[in-house]
């Protein structure tokens, strides 16, 4: 199989590239390197069947050309990370809306099965106990730029779904819930790599708000194999599928756990939302996935608990630090 992975130099995309190459497939990564990095792909550079193309998903011709040669498209390119969204709300809206439209239109034009990455953010402020795929979305006000990501991804799902049903081209929509693992950067938000880096540098751990807000972190090693399995499962076509972990934790609890697991001397500090993100920020208090649909469709069963997830990131960061900085 020849796969195109948009955003393949990013965190999840690079793990998917590894996975597909290991299975003997050909992979073309399209990435503009705005938040992704070539170092995430250095292990694949000389592997037969792997190709990297630097480019923008807003470039219709380029997207069309690459998709035309493919058997499957995994669309993971997006402007991600809370800081990125809050700092560049219009740019991230354009990429997340029009970029997805380009990729999906090209896939449908060439009748190439496609997966569109969505997010648990589409549930907005809904804090149901175990968010199900058909639960209501509760977005905040349109004058809070925080919601632009959720709103754009919500529309992306509709773009994917409507094109998929009208054309009959297989389409899968995946909703990622706080996926974590090696290569993830804390530069644009993403609390686990931020706390791990702070702990390893003995810097204060910055808990935003009270730290009582809760999340459920999933491992990239559980989520990535599920993507190819969903693409092979006709019952998964034209629907959104939750993918995430199982162990829920408060953000204060996460900070404590990371301090304990790293043996760090870092203190925990509390930072106001306004200081962290600027004015008008709204946080979600709770976000816990119900992954029973993925379990039914493909036998999805998260196998890594929170300690495993933190441990894999800590090992990755420690080994990266032992390599001398280039001069
Ligand atoms: N958070 C935090 N300190 C940080 C970064 C994030 O306390 O340095 C909090 C953030 O406010 C949110 C949670 O951690 O409550 C998860 O944030 P992230 O950006 O990782 O994901 P999301 O908000 O999209 O779930």
Describe the overall structure.
The chain is of the alpha/beta class and 327 residues long. The chain is 40% helix and 17% strand. The chain has eleven helices and 14 strands. It has helices spanning 11-22, 60-68, 82-87, 89-109, 147-167, 191-200, 220-231, 251-262, 273-277, 292-298, 306-322, and strands spanning 2-6, 26-31, 50-54, 72-75, 114-119, 171-176, 179-180, 205-208, 214-216, 218-219, 239-243, 248-250, 268-271, 286-287. A seven-stranded parallel β-sheet has the order 3-2-1-4-5-6-11, with helices on both faces. It has a three-stranded mixed β-sheet with strand order 12-9-14. Helix 1 (11-22) crosses helix 7, helix 4 packs parallel to helix 5 and helix 8 crosses helix 11. The longest helix has 21 residues, at 89-109. Residues 82, 178, 189-191, 194, 206-208, 213, 215, 251, 283 line the site of uridine-5'-diphosphate.
Computed CA radius of gyration, to the nearest angstrom: 19 Å
* Helix and strand composition category: alpha/beta
The biggest beta sheet is recorded as: 7 strands, parallel
Low-confidence stretches: none
Bin the helical content: 40-55%
Please count the helical segments.
Answer: 11
Name every ligand kind in the structure.
uridine-5'-diphosphate
* Global geometry: globular
Average pLDDT: 95
Q: If strands are numbered along the chain, what order do they take across the biggest sheet?
A: 3-2-1-4-5-6-11
Q: In whole angstroms, how far apart are the ends?
A: 40 Å
β-strand percent reads: 15-25%
Please give the oligomerization state of what you see.
single chain
Order of helices and strands: EHEEHEHHEHEEHEEEHEEHEHEHH
Using DSSP, what is the number of strands? 14
């Amino acid at each position: 199989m020849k796969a195109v992975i948009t955003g393949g130099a990013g965190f999840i995309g690079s793990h998917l590239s590894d996975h597909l190459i290991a299975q003997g497939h050909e992979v073309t990564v399209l990435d503009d390197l705005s938040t992704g990095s070539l170092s995430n792909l250095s292990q694949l550079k000389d592997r037969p069947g792997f190709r990297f193309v630097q480019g923008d998903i807003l470039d219709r011709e380029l997207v069309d050309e690459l998709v035309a040669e493919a058997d499957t498209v995994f669309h993971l390119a997006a402007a991600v990370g809370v800081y990125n969204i809050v700092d560049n709300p219009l740019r991230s809206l354009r990429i997340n809306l029009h970029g997805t439209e380009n990729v999906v239109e090209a896939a449908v034009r060439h009748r190439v099965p496609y997966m569109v990455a969505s997010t648990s953010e589409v549930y907005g402020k809904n804090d149901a106990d175990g968010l199900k795929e058909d639960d209501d979305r509760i977005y905040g006000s349109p004058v809070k730029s925080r919601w632009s990501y959720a709103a754009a991804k919500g529309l992306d799902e509709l773009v994917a779904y409507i094109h998929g049903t009208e054309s009959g081209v297989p389409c899968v929509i995946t909703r990622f819930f706080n996926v974590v693992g090696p290569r993830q950067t804390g530069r644009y938000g993403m609390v686990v790599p931020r706390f791990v880096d702070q702990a390893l540098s003995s810097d204060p751990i910055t808990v935003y708000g009270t730290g009582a807000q809760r999340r459920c972190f999933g491992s990239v090693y559980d989520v990535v194999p599920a993507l190819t399995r969903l693409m092979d499962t006709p019952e998964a076509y034209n629907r959104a599928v939750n993918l995430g972990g199982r162990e829920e934790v408060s953000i204060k609890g996460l900070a404590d756990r990371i301090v304990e697991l790293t043996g760090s001397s870092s203190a925990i500090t509390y930072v106001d939302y306004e200081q962290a993100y600027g004015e008008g920020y709204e946080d979600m208090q709770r976000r816990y996935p119900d992954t029973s649909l993925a379990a039914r469709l493909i036998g999805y069963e998260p196998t890594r608990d929170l300690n495993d997830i933190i441990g894999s990131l800590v090992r990755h960061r420690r080994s990266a630090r032992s390599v001398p900085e280039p001069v």
